[in-house]
Design goal:
Glyco_trans_11; transferase; 5-stranded parallel β-sheet; Rossmann fold; glycosyltransferase; Alpha-1,2-fucosyltransferase; 11 strands
Amino acid sequence: MIYVDVKGNLGNQLFIYAFARNLQEKTGQKICLNTTYLSKYFPDYTFSLDDYKLNENVYIESKKNLPFFMNIYMLPIKVIIRLLKKNPIINKKFSIRLFNFLAKRGYFLWLQETYINFKIRPHKNYYVTGFWQSPKYFDYFSEELKKELTPQKEVLAYNRNFFDLIRHKETICVTIRRGDYISNAKIKNSYYLCGPDFFYTGVKRLRDKYPDAIVICFSDDIEWVKTNLDFHCETYYESGNDPVWEKLRLMSACKHFVLSNSSFSWWAAYLSSRNGHVIAPSKWYVDNRQVDIYREGWEYIEV
């Protein structure tokens, strides 16, 4: 069995699921999506993967603890990881060695934000914790994965006309992440990069190439967007009240994208089947740490 620590909101949960499916593809093991720590440490977060057509050999469990040294919410483990991340030179070499040491024994602990190419060794059980934000872990079976990441429910009745408009027009999906990127000072200092000028520049670049394109805005603060952003073109707004699986379906139905540095935004572009143009911020974190979340062919705006 592959025991997986599920954490974060839907965007992060999708990365976690995709990494676990990568292990499943290589080992043939069943997956147990463990929500124990999600409900214990993040009561405001919602488990959302059960809204999708997941692989038939995936199970959901709410009472399975990871081995103690894989519980990154324990203070000693948290301190070690924090010290590693504050020393990037040490972090790169040491964390990869530690990762490989654990992986050989069936434990997958996310210590490095860049992709690590590791060998799978046979074990009775595997344990996984981390965010695994790199498509290099799952691009090789992306078509199968995208089928599984289809919502179980049909498009909601009140969104059918909106969905059809998005699919049949030259649309630009603009995702404006606010929420805790604005309200939480600690998170803001790490993640807030994309202000109004970023979105204006992104939309202008795309409309210079696709003059007939219309803008579709998505945000966790859609009323702020309506009041404060004007793209000077035909613009539509998602209601802000849709469940996350419906919102992500509407986003991924667009053709072109101006992405915030958000995993939820990232998945909208990844799941799109329309081969459009993607614009993203030049870095994913304020501290400019190295990541592997970017994809070939994207265009970047300096932030």
